[in-house]
Amino acid sequence: MRFHPILLLTSCLAAGAFSTYAGTPSAPDEPSGTISLRQAVALALVRHPELAAYSKDIRIADAQKLQAGLKPNPVVDLSLEDIVGSGGYNGFDQSQNTLQLSQLFELGDKRATRVRAAETERVSVQWDYQTKRLQIAATTVAAFVDVLAAQRRLIQMKETQALAEKFAPAAQKRVDAGRASPVEVTRANVVTASAKIAVEQQEGQLTVSRKRLAALWGSTKPRFSDAVGDLDQVRDLPTLTTATGRLEKNPLLARGDAEITSREAKLAVEQAKRHPDLTVSAGVRQYSETKDVGAVLGFSLPWPLFNRNQGNIAEAQAQIEKARDLRTATKVQLSTSLAIAYEQMENAKIQITSYRASVLPQVEEAYKLTNEGYENGRFGYLEVLDAQRTLSEARQRQLESLIQYHKAVAEIEGLTGQALPGNK
What we know:
Blueprint: H1 5-14, E1 34-35, H2 37-47, H3 51-68, E2 75-81, E3 96-105, H4 110-176, H5 182-215, E4 226-227, H6 240-245, H7 251-272, E5 278-287, E6 292-300, H8 310-375, H9 381-416
Parallel strand pairs: 1-4
Antiparallel strand pairs: 2-3, 3-5, 5-6
């Protein structure tokens, strides 16, 4: 199976995996055998523990929007006057009883501006959710690459162990034939034991890598046995200029735009507060002495002589400028991260090409000739060890370059929010 880190992220985007939260999708089952990159990302996007909190944020934003659209409650007021006094007012005979209903009417379009501000806040939360999902997908790709690399290292170390075990009997035969010192057998045994220890350590590293991958979908004990993918795939990708042009697809920048819009909506809310609200009241008054009843009407309107909400308006304006500055800073940071990732990808690709074209073929040929020379008595065991160590180191360095390449490509796609041509 081919390994396509970039294609995987984009396929999730195309399928709506990064769309606005609309509920909890059904969780796929973790496979008990092999696992592909697509399956790993799908599990992480549905089961990652942190994503549950974002669904609550959406509900919180919906509740805030609901509250913002509610009208003020009416006020019922009952007052009793001229009671429990002196003389003729020592009881309730001379009381004036007033029952009044008051209603606050918000002026200046306050309720509509509050609702618009709540709506923009919900959009910001949605972009936060998308950003987190994209980050989790990119993290899962990197963890998946680590598992593939750990599996590859284990295979290489087992091959090294097999070679070491192969030379131990050969060294013993040379000693028995008087063609080599007994020290050569000791060296062979030491190398064999060291190779066995290295294999055991790498098995432990593979276990750790598998657990780290499974933890991304909330599993403490991985069920899958092996990750399936092709680390050797390397493609030609577009230039950095082309990738930079796609940087606007990053949800962090969309989040910055949404934040500016939200701050502007909050400024409108503060500006609306400059207009005083009108309170209208109506009721009835009963005169206990005569049993007469009269109507009571009234209204109140604050006089904005000193407080016209100037401070809050100035703060809201400053918050807009701050949001714009942060958006600019975010784009600079993303551009820098993209340039670094692109440089790492290019360097890794150069190294991979070099190893494939010249380094590994020459090292493998040198090891083959040294091995044949050892069997024919032309070389000693030290020369074989040196050739074997050189071959092992070259393979490890090539593997590190492949890991760097795939992780850099995944980071580039995470930054641009889409696949790069050449990996489809």
